[in-house]
């Protein structure tokens, strides 16, 4: 984890490679809970019997579930001494490979852009979510967070 003493230090970190998070396993329970929360009960995510004979040989995580884990994974790679941080938004989100239930994912994070804002710093992170043993990333996105003092 890279720790920044203040928002000014983060501002100067444009281009920094923050490394990768620890691996985390995606469970059917997580996928089912996400399906209940979002009302997205497509069989490829929640019907283990039908999905077993589907294109991926089992259920897969929702792309949006994977994306929703990105801010948490960024938090595993960066710490900013600020009063609080606000999620500003995602850009250039692509889901390039499935995340099979039971697989493990991690994120590789870089600081793409920084900019001063009133009372803080806005930072855009490049995030590549990998599936352990996979050929392609599951998700590639840019996530912007504003840290305020």
TrEMBL record:
Protein name: Acyl dehydratase
Pfam families according to UniProt: MaoC_dehydratas
Residue ranges constituting the MaoC-like domain according to the UniProt record: 14-128
Organism from which the protein derives: Petropleomorpha daqingensis
Family from the record: Belongs to the enoyl-CoA hydratase/isomerase family.
């Amino acid at each position: 984890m890279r720790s920044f003493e203040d928002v000014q230090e983060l501002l100067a970190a444009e281009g920094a490679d923050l490394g990768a998070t620890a691996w985390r396993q995606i469970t059917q329970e997580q996928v089912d809970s996400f399906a209940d929360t979002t009302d997205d009960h497509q069989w490829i995510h929640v019907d283990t019997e039908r999905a077993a004979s589907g294109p991926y040989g089992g259920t897969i995580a929702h792309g949006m579930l994977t994306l929703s884990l990105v801010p948490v994974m960024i938090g595993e790679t960066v710490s900013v001494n600020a009063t609080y941080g606000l999620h500003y938004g995602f850009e250039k989100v692509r889901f390039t490979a499935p995340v099979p239930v039971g697989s493990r994912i991690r994120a590789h994070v870089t600081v793409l852009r920084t900019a001063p804002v009133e009372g803080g710093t806005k930072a855009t992170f490049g995030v590549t979510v990998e599936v352990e043993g996979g050929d392609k990333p599951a998700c590639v996105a840019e996530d912007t967070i504003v840290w305020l003092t």
